Amino acid sequence: MTEPFQFPYKYYQAGFLTLAMIATQFGCVSDVITFSEHPKTKFADEIGMAPKKYQHVLALEFAVKEVNENPMILPNVTLGFYIYDSFTNARMTLQNTLKLLSSWKQMVPNFNCDMQNNLMAVIGGHDSEISLYVATLSSIYKIPQIAYCIFAPVRSVKTQLPSFYRTVPNEELQYTGIVHLFLHFHWTWVGIIAADDDDGEKFVQVLRKMLYRNGVCTAFSEKTPVLSHTSEMLQAFESIQTKGRLFTNSKVKVLIVNAEPQTTAWLIWYFYFHSVSEDTALISIGKVWVMTAQWDFSSQSMHRDFDVQIFTGALSFAIHSKEVPEFTNFLQLLHPNSKKEDDFVKVFWEKAFNCLFFDPRELRETSDICTGQEKLENLPGLMFEMSMTGQSYSIYNAVHAIAQALNKMHMFRSKHGKMENRLNTFLRSISFNNSVGDMVSFDENSELGTGLDIINWMTFPNRSFLKVKVGRMDPQALAGQEFTINEEAIAWHTMFNQVLPIAVCNDNCHPGYRKKKKEGEPFCCYDCTPCPDGKISDQKDTDNCFKCPEHQFPNWNQDGCLPKILNFLSFGESLGITLAFLALTFSLLTVLMLGVFIKNKDTPIVKANNQNLTYSLLIALLFCFLCSLLFMGHPQILTCYSRQIAFGIIFTVAVSCVLAKTFTVVLAFKATKPGSRMKKWVGKRLTNSILLGSSLIQVAICVVWLCTAPPFPDLDVHSLAEEVIVECNEGSVTMFYCILGYLGFLALVSFTVAFLARKLPDSFNEAKFITFSMLVFCSVWLSFVPAYLSTKGKSMVAVEIFSILASSAGLLSCIFFPKCYIIILKPELNSRDQIIKKP
Questions:
Q1: CB 102: neighbour CB atoms within 10 A?
Q2: What is the mean pLDDT of residues 823-830?
Q3: Which residues contact 120 (CB under 8 A, 6 or more apart)?
Q4: In the chain, at which end, N or C, are there fewer CB atoms within 10 A of the end residue's CB?
Q5: In which band, very low, low, confident or very high, does the pLDDT at 791 lie, cut at 50, 70 and 90?
Q6: Is the pLDDT of residue 326 over 60?
Q7: How many CB atoms lie within 10 A of CB 278?
Q8: pLDDT above 90 covers what percent of the chain?
Q9: Residue 518 carries which DSSP code?
């Protein structure tokens, strides 16, 4: 059986121990096998070599050179290497892997000879699919493989591929980094672009779930075709028009790309196609491209004709790397004619510098002849970088990890005698700092515990670019500090005028509004509705409005809270001044009346109906007027204790005086009848008994109140929307109404007795005045209860004060004004004859 078409590209360097590498330098497509002829792989020159990826080969060569020159690592032992290309093709990868495992220059499976008996490890490949192909064969021979692919192969690495390692962190870190990035910039409406293969499917499924859990919606997830056969290339070109229009949607500003070579190739072809067509409006819309760590900006040589400014402002994740200073010096010494065993260098040179090496066998002439004196540092960054890229840094670390493991293995052999090749055992346990100080060690998943850098790309018209490190995903950082980003260092696409791009399904809901889901739309698409009364939202895009703290209330726009005003009846406000004025006026009037009665104490009208009760009633009314002042001002503990107690006891004394006066009138009339036994009840003993007995009952109620649940200062933050009521909490409402009820009972008894005695002869009758006064008193307090219960805050206090003043004034006016009228204006009526005269 003849071998398939042979590709000449390989790189060999002799050594006692050999490392192998499956690189990815060229593109390759194959015809669909029809079995009409002998199957073979055709090389597609138009895909060609990606010049930038040649740095991967140079990184391995440089790392081997460092190891061989270091006397502390593998002394007296030289490392060599053998490099084949994968051509990003399954058949070519398997074929070249078999060559590494077989004899020199011939593919003979399971037969090794020459220097390849000392093959110690394989490095590669660039993506998970190629890595899986290599691992499928190398694992059979238990040869360690160190890949630098971002995503692990789809198989279970720990169980099915125990000899498989990666010099990159777990892909979960990249998913987490993408989510952190979107949440940091509040991007909730994004598109996903991935290849239509296993890796792309896994990327879309895992990422969409994580985005959904964190409140980010995907506007679309586009699958790009995989270019493995020529027929698929034709289909890919046909899909450029149809699929491309989806992710050029102006509403989708952020696109996350699983930037493995197949997807980036499709993107580049898409934009290249539109850049030479009339439909340039589609690519003029500014986008934020978020690329995964596979992105290297040089997957195709057609970059030479491609306007890379479309990707300016892009953000990409990159394998963490540091600058290795000696590597730049190593690159500057590169010359295409000095490396006889390197089949890649001349192809790289021609592609990079767009020239040809002169070949006498060629009949055609060219004006662009490669001289070999061209300088790598003169190449634009899209073609080649003089600093070590993330993938090259991973290869560099892989070589040093293998060298350290080999060194430990040889030291163990020299100490304990000959043993079998157990490189895997030593590779799992290595831990060292590389030449730039980074720690290199494999974790429990056989992956390097490094992080990811976040890169901002600035591109220029001359196809050069600038990479700026703006953030980091560090799994070894402290909790909460794994993700860091410097937003000020980011240069966005010129379309955004250096303003943070907004990626939302619709405009944000402003403060004062909340989100309302749109039926049939993703949860990131919503309407904005005002907050209900009494609630606010103080941030954009809130799901729910909330109430202000207890001591605050919503402002007019319902986007903030204002401090509530303290609500209490102050002496300084108009209502307080008015009520205080009335209280003092009535108090003064009562004092004047008391003075008049004392001055005329020897007159008949004053002596009538128990002079002492008259004085007691006037003094009680005076205190009734004054006690209303206790209800004004900021409530304090003392005033809360005293206001209702003073009100209850003083009014009880006043009503008890009225009740005693009423009984005095009735008994006085009954006692004048011949043979009446009531004479013994007429006198001070009865009146004092009524007064003291009635008052002591109220005092007892007040003492019980104070001992069980006394009043106390309190704040009512719920009754009024914009005010905090500073009030005296009654403590026990039951006891408060017991005081009012008992007071009402005394008033009702007094009113009843006075009403029954209203028709007694005028000579002895004060009952009419008492009847009217108690009618006013009862009317006021019957009106007080519903009014008191229907008001809040200072209005409630004002109602109680007004009731105190009105009922007290009713007693004062109805009982004492007629007598004062006679004393002052009609003194001739204030005589004994007038008092005892019959009607």
A1: 17
A2: 80
A3: 17, 18, 19, 143, 144, 402, 406, 421, 423
A4: N
A5: confident
A6: yes
A7: 6
A8: 26
A9: P
Q: Across 215-224, 276-285, 433-442, 825-834, which has the greatest mean pLDDT?
A: 433-442
Query: Nearest 5 degrees, angle CA 629-CA 632-CA 636?
Result: 110
| Structure token pair of residue 164 | 């498989």
End-to-end CA distance of the chain: 154
Which amino acid belongs to residue 558?
A: Q
CB 208, CB 218: distance < 8 Å: yes
Tokens of 691: 């007064």
Q: How many CB atoms lie within 10 A of CB 156?
A: 9
Q: What are phi and psi of 700, to 5 degrees?
A: -60, -45
Number of H helices, E strands in the chain: 21, 25
Query: Which of 21, 10, 101, 87 lies closest to 48 in space, CA to CA?
Result: 87
Cis peptide, bond prior to residue 125, ω within 30 of zero:
yes
Domains of the chain (ranges; CATH) run 513-563 (no CATH), 574-836 (1.20.1070.10)
Residue 42 DSSP class: P
Q: Is the pLDDT of residue 355 over 80?
A: yes
Helix (H, G, I), strand (E, B) or coil at 704: helix
Residues 159, 164, 169, 173, CA torsion sign? negative
Query: What does the pLDDT read at residue 668?
Result: 61
Contacts of 532 (CB under 8 A, 6+ apart): 545
Strands (E), 702-817: 712-716, 723-729
Beta bridge mates, 432: 440
Q: CA-CA distances (angstroms) from residue 378 to 55, 248, 329, 375, 459?
A: 15, 34, 14, 6, 16
Give the SS3 label for residue 698.
helix
Q: For 56, how many CA atoms within 13 A lie in the half-sphere containing its CB? A: 30
- Residue 505: pLDDT band (50, 70, 90) is confident
Q: What is the pLDDT of residues 363-422, one digit of tens each?
A: 455 557 888 889 998 888 778 888 898 889 999 999 999 999 999 988 888 776 665 567
pLDDT above 60 for 265: yes
Report the phi/psi class of residue 499: left, alpha or beta, with left for phi > 0 and alpha for psi in -120 to 50. beta
Residue 455: Cβ-neighbour burial (10 angstroms; 0-12, 13-18, 19+):
buried
d(CA 388, CA 391): 8
Per-position b or e across 329-360, b if 16+ CB within 10 A of its CB: ebbeebebeeeeebbbbbbbbbbbbebbeeee
- 674/765 Cα distance (integer angstroms): 19
Task: Give the pLDDT confidence of 723-756 residue by residue, as tens digits.
Answer: 888 888 888 889 988 988 898 898 888 888 878 7
Kindly report the length of the chain: 839
Q: Which amino acid is at 20?
A: A
Give the Cα separation of 537 and 515 in Å (integer).
10
Which tokens go with 4?
A: 């398939």
Average pLDDT over all residues of the chain? 82
pLDDT in tens, 528-562: 999 998 899 999 888 899 998 888 889 999 999 99
What pTM, to 2 d.p., does this model score? 0.67
What is the 8-class DSSP label of residue 830? S
Q: Alpha carbon of 454 to those of 38, 55, 449: distances in Å?
A: 48, 21, 17
Token pair in block for residue 303 = 């970059």
Collapsing DSSP to helix, strand or coil, 75 comes out as: coil
- pLDDT bin (cut points 50, 70, 90) of residue 45 is very low
Here the tokens at position 750 are 């007094």
Statement: residue 6 has pLDDT above 50: no
